[in-house]
Amino acid sequence: MTTRVVSVEQGWAGIKSALADSSPGDEVHLGAGRFEGERSLDIPTGVHLSGEWRETVLINTGTGPGIHIVSENVVVSALSVVAGKSEQVLIEIENAQ
To answer: pTM (2 decimals)?
Structure first.
């Protein structure tokens, strides 16, 4: 198990990179701050995405969901997801078991 820590300075691209490099059992931990991006964050199978509770805020300024989960054994905890546009989906979960 590996924990990858992403700082607010690394931004949305840093989160996407850490998620892409993750394997089942890994954790991607986001530091405190506001992370803004236009693309959905796709969480790989078996990965835990965590933050610093209310101190970590994800703001999706695009049209898709902020977090997109299409795999199994995914955990998302201790962070806030905010819509950049009205009526936007914040978290989309497909094929959950």
So the answer is: 0.90
